[in-house]
Amino acid sequence: MTAAQRTATPWLPMAATAVLWGSAFTAIQVALPDYSPAAIALLRIAITVLLLLPCLALGRIGRLRRGDALRMAAFGLTGMTAYQVLLCTGERSVDAGTAAMLIAASPVFTTVLGMAFLGDRPGGRGLTGLGLALGGALLVAVTSGGGSGSAAGALTVLAAAATQAISFALQKPLLKRYSGAECVFYGSLFGLVPLLAAAPGAVGQVAAADGHRTAAVLWLGLGCTATAFWTWSRTLRATTASTASLVLYAVPVAALVLDAVLLGNVPAPTAVLGGLLVLGGVGVASVRRRAAAPERVAAVSAVSAGRVPAGAGSR
Prior knowledge:
- By secondary structure, the protein is mainly α.
- 75% of the residues lie in helices and 0% in strands.
- The protein has helices spanning 11-31, 37-57, 69-90, 96-103, 106-117, 123-142, 147-174, 180-192, 199-208, 211-238, 241-244, 247-263, 269-292, 294-301.
- α3 packs antiparallel against α7 (147-174) and α5 (106-117) crosses α7 (147-174).
- The protein starts with 10 loop residues before the first helix and ends in a 14-residue tail after the last helix.
């Protein structure tokens, strides 16, 4: 990416990505009483595939190269299947705003990837930031409602954050050869396969569900997946990974506001404090790491929505 290409910050797609991914947490919460986590993930991915089929028919989605099939499959299984099932499962006992704050801790996992595979050293400031982020995540987890169910849900959401970081690291090289729509389409196809076993149950749940809960599932596919991954890909193509990481700070805020306005959920003050520690810790570590080696860090996971070094979520 040239210096000229980096001058114009794509604020509109960045803001759109933050709001769309932030709304996913609330939409999941709305859908869960009538839908299982597997059914939500299946329907969300299936809707995305159906929406993109016309693009395939019109030739706007190219063919997947055989050499990229394995990486694309890994991206789909982690980012489409595992992330969504884990997040939906966690939100059974954790409210949407709290889940968003926990997902914001995914930079911790991205940093671990950098240390493991790129020999990255976060340094004293980076380790301090990561410590703050971890402490904040733990504070959010223990104040998310109490009880073993909430604790288990918080840990499940953190597991979703880990799979998110992995999936975005897998996707980054693919974006050099494929458009955002192509990555979403083929990743969704691969991600759909292990969820097909849940299809009979999902059909029954659609028939029995309230209309507004089914509408939430439709929004997850239309807005939070297909549209959001497209706006996120545009963000990454238009700016540096360091600038794109600003989306990280907006996603939890959007989720908290939507959760409070639409569902009336207001997190405990200590949970909000934990969320601020997560974002503050990520910011501290990010400043140090961007100054040290921005492009090298970007190679780890330039597509991550909420990570320490260089990228901003899913959602």
